Amino acid sequence: MPVGSPIVTILVTSKSEDREPVLVGYGVKVDHEIRRRPRKTDVQQAQVAATATSARAKPLVRKLAKDLGVALDSVTPTGVGGVITREDVLGSTQNGHAPNQGKAPSVGADRQPVRGVQRAMADAMVRSAFTAPHVTEWVEVDVSRTLELVARLRSHGAFEGIRVTPLTIVAAAVIQSVKKYPRINSTWLETSEGADILTHQDVHLGIAADTPRGLLVPSVKSAGAMELPELARSIHTLIETARAGRSTPADLTGGTITITNVGVFGVDGGTPIINPGESAILAVGRILDRPWVVDGVVSVRPIMQLSMSFDHRVIDGALGSRALVSMANFLADPTVEILMERATE
């Protein structure tokens, strides 16, 4: 046979007609499908950017917005770099922006719009609670002599036709404490140049009143200059006018320090929220007979709890404590306190 002639011919049948030749060391060519993420459109990118920037806020501001039901996307930022500030969130509630509605109300739920006095009260309380750093202190006092004084005043000719209650003596105690510690009768003012503390010369005593329209806080103007009969009459008239819905705008503005009598509801005390524009509020609890140590002997005494909240920017703990204790001392022996006050005038 000639050199180079084939000796044997072998026929190989491939399972795949499309099989390609294989080079040693390279393996079979595999058709890998390259998968890429779909490229975002300009609209999608704009939406992502808007989401990332429209809700820029610190954690405390986010919590405030959540508590108030405010959608951060609806708030216009005024902070540096487009950051939403606490004032932006509070301002959005005052400007009437719709809060986050959350879940749909359940079947049979009673949903009512918040308007008028209730809306004004809610806005004021939110503004105060999230602006003024509140501190609340308590003290209990034996009011045996206060009740004795109330009984004597009711039968006194100078108080004929005047409703005298323990609240009358509490009001006198607050006024006396203001005279000793004028700083509790102040207003914190934010100005373009910083902050000022305005200490009022007159005591315009606010009295929180539960009325059919909601919570109202009319104030007795120039209460610090009144004698006790006039003060008692003014407080009673102010509350009755508020409950009858006849309070004027002047009655409901201009207070400098407030009393809220939660004792009439059977409550011992609480943590009252300061009325906006003021620096202190006193909550008066119910009078309850309790065991009390007097001269080393346990006896049953009428005990009242006083709870005072104050703005820590204006009133520090020492001043707040002294002012509250002075009120308690007045109620523990009001006759002596009244006589001493008149002797110093």
TrEMBL record:
| One family name in Pfam for this protein | 2-oxoacid_dh
Stretches assigned to the Peripheral subunit-binding (PSBD) domain: 56-93
Give GO cellular component annotations, separated by semicolons: cytoplasm
The cofactors it requires, by name, are: (R)-lipoate
Task: Spell out the InterPro entries in the cross-references.
Answer: 2-oxoacid_DH_actylTfrase, 2-oxoacid_DH_E2_comp, CAT-like_dom_sf, E3-bd_dom_sf, PSBD
* Disordered: annotated span: 91-113
Q: Does the keyword Transmembrane apply?
A: no
- Keyword Nucleotidyltransferase in annotation: no
Any one Gene Ontology molecular-function term assigned to this protein's record: lipoic acid binding
Protein keywords: Acyltransferase, Lipoyl, Transferase
The family line of this record is:
Belongs to the 2-oxoacid dehydrogenase family.
Name of this protein: Unannotated protein
